[in-house]
Amino acid sequence: MVEQAPVRRTPPTRLAFALALVSAAAFGTSGPFGKALFEGGWTPAAAVTARIGIAALVLAVPTYLELRGRWHLLRKNLGIVLLYGMTGVAGCQLFYFVAVEHLSVGVALLLEYLSPVLLVGYTWLLTRRAPSRLTLAGAATAIAGLALVLNVFGDVQLDTVGVACGLAAAFCSAAYFVVASHTHEDSLSPLALAGAGMAAGVLPLVAVGALGLLPFRASTDDVPFAGHEVSFVIPLLGIAVIAAAFAYVTGVVSARMLGSRLASFVALSEVLFAVLFAWWLLGELPLPVQLAGGVLIVAGVLLVKASEDSPLVE
């Protein structure tokens, strides 16, 4: 069977960057929504499983309508769908939550968001061309900014299992961007890929809960959110519809427009959005060092963008 050649991308546009930022902002809402559920008695594994399961249901009908009469596309892209679901949907979150059990949240997130650096190395191996100085400078600047936003320098505790799971989450995140950005003539649409990937990703999450590999508890009690006691349904729908279904679909669209490497750097803004949403919804005031980190992340993205002298083809 002859492998189909990737479709050459046009240069990134303002729309592509806008969609990438919208996706990052949507992912960034998962913090406040998730914290409300956790304070209401939910465990992370239960919240993540419900998040992905509901998102899969939300996208089920649009995905069916998108694929109706074209089911051969799903068969041709089954491997891509499974990889997307196992890495970008299930793998990232499961490895991250295991890492959090052994590390501080900031260090775990810093390890997971090493994915842009991994993608720089992946592109280097794929093309056999060393990254430009601008790309390397952008990577270093963005990662430094990420460390400041996450404020990891105060109390850094390392653990072998935690570091291993954090790096596994980074590899899963990198795989997500590669899979999401890959296109050919018989590619699934972003909606179909996200919808089918959600369905594939929820299966290992359910298995983890059924086997008792992680604590799995949920509650129907009211939860604290944005200064009020609200039904658990509100943050649950928020984390599923906004921070999953919408975030993943727009993420695939922007990744295909920007390419995996640039999209992964723009996605670093998720942590900055998370800080801002925590400030707005939870009253958690960001520190000056976190705001300075946000500036460095933006500067790093701009440096990587400046190094893109031709459309990225993966």
Structure description:
By secondary structure, the chain is mainly alpha-helical. The chain is built from 14 helices and 2 strands. Helices cover 73% and strands 2% of the residues. Residues 1-8 and 309-314 have low confidence and may be disordered. The longest helix has 26 residues, at 233-258. It has helices at 14-28, 30-39, 44-67, 71-76, 78-102, 105-112, 115-127, 133-150, 160-181, 190-211, 233-258, 260-266, 269-282, 288-307; strands at residues 223-225, 228-230. It has one domain (14-306). Helix 3 crosses helix 11 (233-258) and helix 11 (233-258) crosses helix 12. 50% of the residues are buried. A hairpin with a 2-residue loop joins strand 1 and strand 2 (228-230). The chain has a two-stranded antiparallel sheet with strand order 1-2. The protein is globular and about 55 Å long. InterPro entries: EamA_dom, EmrE-like. It comes from Luteipulveratus halotolerans.
Give a quick set of tags describing it:
314 residues, two-stranded antiparallel ribbon, globular, disordered C terminus, EamA_dom
Brief sketch in words of this structure:
This protein is an all-alpha fold and 314 residues long. It is built from 14 helices and two strands. It is globular.
Domain module tally? 1
Order of helix and strand elements from N to C terminus: HHHHHHHHHHEEHHHH
Shape: globular
Strand content: under 5%
- Radius of gyration over all CA atoms, rounded: 19 Å
* Largest sheet entry: 2 strands, antiparallel
Q: Whole-Å distance between the termini?
A: 20 Å
Number of helices: 14
Instruction: Give, in spatial order, the strands making up the sheet with the most strands.
Output: 1-2
- In which range does the helix fraction lie? over 70%
Poorly predicted regions: 1-8, 309-314
Q: How many E strands?
A: 2
- What is the SS-derived class? mainly alpha
